[in-house]
Amino acid sequence: MQWTSLAAVALLAQSVSAQNMLRFACSQLVVERTDPLVNPGALYTPHLHQIVGGNSFNITMDPANHDPAKLSTCTSCQFKEDKSNYWTAVLFFKAKNGTYHRVPQVGNGGPQGHLIQNGGLDVYYIPQGKVTAFKPGFRMLAGNAANTDAKKVNRGNICHRCWQSTNDNQFTGAQPCSGSDSVDVPTGTQCKMVRQTIIFPACWDGKNLDSPDHQSHVAYSGVGATGGGACPASHPVKLPQIMYELMWNTSTFMADRSSWPTDGTNPFVYSMNLGGPAAHGDYVFGWEGDTLQKAMDNRCNLNRDCAAAGIHAQQPAVYNACTKPQQAPEEVDGWLKALPMGEMVVKA
């Protein structure tokens, strides 16, 4: 179902607003091969990421001595007090001649209208009942960057949606990860863009700020963007549910299929050279003081200033300007001879 009427958009706005969730834009801080969560201390990590958030992001980020809230001087996210870092893999188009091109991104529409950002993603913090905000040093990972089996992914938590317009506000479908949303990246001729959704676990063991696999200290308590259900006894502490949304503008590649692979393979791959089942997201907490807890307790909503929590929404020109140079310098735009994996990549 395609939601194009003003009435449908108004209904969506009402339902989201009633839930009182934070939803805000984050522009790209940098696109590079680093990953302080999975590959701490390494440059030219196995695959490329797009990183958003606080500009203290670096290759180590040892939680013993790195607090993004205190070390970052700016953030590429809309709320001034949010110095967290959020990152995902990057979507590429693989042409039949073997070259690769990074898929461009656009802002994402919603109840506030178009969110303005330079690449990056939208972040949600969705509470269900009383929630406990993350603690300094908290970090986690959703998804599996090595997975090739769609059956091993819960479609209710990590999914892709075929967007039938290049207008991000011309809604297709209903709530995230429902209906015809798929684990694989859709390639239908009607798909002008692809919306990627990554939903994180909302239950915590209450003890460990991280775990060796960056996942065992947290647990899912349901599916979809609901804030999660009742937490299991093993992970009794209810967290705000984090969700990422990304809009990949595939329209140019969809319009001209002369460069598509002739063997029928899906030309849209993430930077691991794998498809949708390998989609994943990383999170390192970095809100200032107790602002996130106050935002949840006081039912702060969307991307608006919220005096009760002391959070302030920055103008797009401010958060778009928060960038940093690549720590692992290499070309990532234009047509590339290979994906940025292994040695430094070169242009085609």
TrEMBL record:
- Domain of life, source organism: Eukaryota
Question: What is the name attached to this protein's record?
Answer: DUF1996 domain-containing protein
Question: Taking every annotated instance into account, which residue ranges of this chain make up the domain DUF1996?
Answer: 35-287
**What is the species listed in this Swiss-Prot or TrEMBL entry?**
Thyridium curvatum
- Give the residue range of the signal peptide: 1-18
Q: Keywords in alphabetical order, please.
A: Signal
Reply yes or no: does the keyword NADP apply.
no
Positions in coiled-coil regions: none
